[in-house]
Specification:
about 270 residues; ten-stranded mixed β-sheet; 6 helices
């Protein structure tokens, strides 16, 4: 596939096609086109160069890899996998259920509408919860017959953090919120949803495959291997609306974090 040069904007960029594109960027492409790459529609794979890259997935289930450099990756719509690689990267999942893998470096992970799965990797990472997207619910009435005992509706988290390191990682909050605006509660997936996670896995093969691409195993999510996910639920104190889950980290540990590990984020 050959990327098309686009000089219609003030920042020249490269455009993909409406097909499923697979492109590995060169240093020359990344430095000559400050507007980055827009992959358009299709299920695309864009791999960045060794310098700073700016890549947009567009429509479709895209995979964006930053490579070296301090990269900015935008999944845009649909279910996307973003991998920052080396460097201090900014990963923006966009609309849809996305998996954001920071890799090495001090990365910032930002979701949108839809549940984002965050794995920061090595370094001091910022995991952003979008407070303006709290309180979204999912109707489960169509599948209650398959999983008796589950609630008819559930409140969706904006994001799920899989590898929070309390010694260096940071929680970012939109809307000017601070730690004092939050509630921290212990989370148990069986108590919350009334079902063992091992019963769900056969029905979400695509999502499990996405986790595998980021090197996340079932053992990472459920180290006790008991089919129950545990951790901390973070909610807004004023409305009790759900922001997200921090897996395998107790509410006591999150509540003990200093104010400096909760920052206001604007973008």
């Amino acid at each position: 596939m050959v990327l098309t040069q686009d000089f219609s904007d003030s920042f020249p960029r490269l455009l993909g096609t409406s097909d499923n594109d697979n492109e590995i960027l060169t240093v020359e492409q990344s430095t000559s086109f400050p507007g980055g790459v827009l992959a358009l529609s299709g299920d695309d794979i864009i791999t960045g160069s060794s310098v700073n890259d700016l890549n947009f997935g567009g429509r479709g289930e895209d995979q964006l890899f930053g490579g070296g450099g301090n990269d900015s990756l935008y999944g845009n719509k649909d279910t996307d996998f973003l991998d920052g690689g080396f460097g201090d990267d900014i990963l923006y999942g966009g609309k849809g259920a996305d998996l954001l893998n920071g890799g090495e470096g001090n990365d910032t992970l930002i979701g949108d509408a839809g549940v984002g799965i965050y794995q920061g990797g090595l370094g001091s990472d910022v995991y952003v919860f979008r407070t303006e997207l709290a309180g979204i619910t999912q109707d489960l009435s169509d599948i209650i017959s398959l999983f008796p005992g589950i609630p008819s509706t559930v409140e969706l988290p904006n994001a799920i953090i899989t590898d929070f390191n309390s010694t260096e990682d940071i929680i970012g909050l939109t809307g000017g919120m601070t730690k004092s605006d939050l509630i921290f509660e212990d989370f148990n997936s069986f108590e919350e949803f009334g079902i063992n996670t091992s019963l769900i896995l056969p029905f979400i093969g695509d999502e499990v495959e996405l986790l595998t691409k980021a090197g996340i195993s079932e053992q990472d999510l459920d180290p006790n291997n008991d089919g129950v996910l545990e951790g901390t639920a973070i909610k807004m104190s004023g409305t009790n609306q759900m922001l997200g889950y921090v897996l395998n980290t107790s509410s006591t540990e999150i509540a003990a974090l200093p104010e400096s590990q909760f920052i206001s984020v604007n973008f």
